[in-house]
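Async update (no meeting this week)

Hi team, since we skipped the sync, here's where things stand on the single-chain job. The sequence we agreed to prioritize is pasted below, unchanged from the tracker. I ran it this morning and attached the output directly underneath so nobody has to dig for it. Comments welcome in thread, and please keep replies under the output.
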Amino acid sequence: MNIKLGFGSIPKPQFVFVSKEHDHCWYMLSDDAKQIPIYDRALTGVITEIEIKKTVETSQGKSEKTDLHILGDKPYIIRSGSESYFSKGLLLSLDALSYEQLLRPLTIGVSPGDKAIVFCTIYHPVTYRSVGVSWDGHKEIDWQALGKRVSLKINGDKTTNSETIEMPANTNTSEVRAEFIAKTDTYLSQLNWTPKQGREYLQQKYGKRSRYHLSETELLDFLDYLKGQLTLSY
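Output:
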């Protein structure tokens, strides 16, 4: 990204708000708080952070939002209601992507649904393929656990909201790590890997003999690898 010297606008992220309107699905706000429609249906950039269930003050009072930070031609923050179809579709798509895929540019697309619904679809900007997600059983999904998993994958162990800061150090991280390790147990069992095979792979790949010694990034990478091996075996 080129840096423009001299006078210019204040370098701060541009908020993008998700809302179904007559001819657009998201908008920005001007300095005098007037809505500026965005008619383009997609934003491409590199995801740098996600804030889930962030409490913000709105004209209707306090509300929980999901903020997706994405670096395009400049920094953007896509803000949507935490319980909206957009936010839930976003989490499902991000969960389906590997850690390596999240390091590359992605395209966030919006499309109108019934009534006030806006759907989110993530695309690979090179192949134009969308990230396939399933809404089957979405009412039974543990959205809080899914949010923690996605947050850890994108943010690492950074804290992203006041609720996390007030909790004892590493509480959420420990819970999510335990969940990830339990998931690797399931995958290893389905792949019929022996403990020796697991130790040898960890030693060769990460220089460590136990999953408990892996960093959050390494644990996510190992989980994605096992998931990929499981897919290939079918």
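Quick observations from my side:
The longest strand covers residues 42-58.
DSSP finds seven helices and eight strands in the chain.
Reply here if anything looks off.
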